[in-house]
Amino acid sequence: MTTDIHYKKGFMKGKKVLVVGGTGFIGYHLLKLCLLKKIDVTCISYKKNNKKSYLKNVTYLKCDVSKKEELKKIKKIYDIIVNLSGYIDHKNKKNANTHYLGCKNLLNHFKNSRAKIFIQVGSSSEYGKIKSPHKEKNYGKPKTIYGLSKKKASDFLFDNFKNKKEFLPFVILRFYQVFGPNQNEERLIPMVIKSSLQNKEFDCSDGKQSRDFLYVDDAVKAIFKCFNNRKINFKIINVASGKSVKVKNLIKIIVKMIKKGKPNFGKIKLRTDEPLVSRPVISNAKKYLNWKPKYDLKNALKKTIIFYKKKSNLK
Length: 315
Description:
Elements: E1 16-20, H1 25-36, E2 40-45, E3 59-62, E4 80-83, H2 93-96, H3 98-110, E5 117-123, H4 145-162, E6 170-175, E7 177-179, H5 188-197, E8 201-203, E9 210-215, H6 216-224, E10 235-239, E11 244-246, H7 247-258, E12 262-264, E13 277-278, H8 283-289, H9 297-312
Parallel strand pairs: 1-2, 1-4, 2-3, 4-5, 5-6, 6-10, 7-9, 8-12, 9-13
Antiparallel strand pairs: 9-11
């Protein structure tokens, strides 16, 4: 089976997709893409959806998937499950552990259902501080609470598969730094854009760390490429732009594009668990998903800046 099936009209006709954590940043954009493709999609989140992220024709259900008992109210009628669940607060160990608990509970709930694929959205944090470029065969050594929880979820999936307890095919997509419209404004790129639009001074690190930044539209298209694709079963796939940039240069690009903003470099210390360089090999994404990023960094930043300008009513 080839990935060309993604573009055949009606290939998802009659199929039902469940997006867990669909009210989050990536989830919201994935729901929009599903609606664009006229897919029957349901969103699960642990809190009620707010009006700003509400999308017509999406079925919204409230459920905390980290609590096993709550999943009993979720019907097993879905063909594709995308797991984006988990708290944004990565400093709290209890919150971060929901990434593992949610994955475990969802897999156990749906493993004997009609579902064809379980798409676990992982993270580059699972690799920890091992030398870049990261390859999927590298065994990660995460140091952060968030990375440990994501890695624990990945290990759980493979342990079940190896012990023949796993009856549901899965794929793990390891995203690098995803950004774009509607992201939490406390994240790096939205924070820099907002501060620059207001021509404020803002503190940041020395910016010597190098990262791979991926536009959110490219990220959700990679998820979509997993629908009805048997090539990906039981694999880990890095999803990123394939190009890294120093954080200091990224901030300078944003300030230059906006023509405002006063970054104070070196005011914030790097975390001891933060790798200086984090970038992947993305050949598996090209091989198994027939995917490559559409947006380069500057075009993606331009689109993101336009969004925050409109949101803030700033010029």
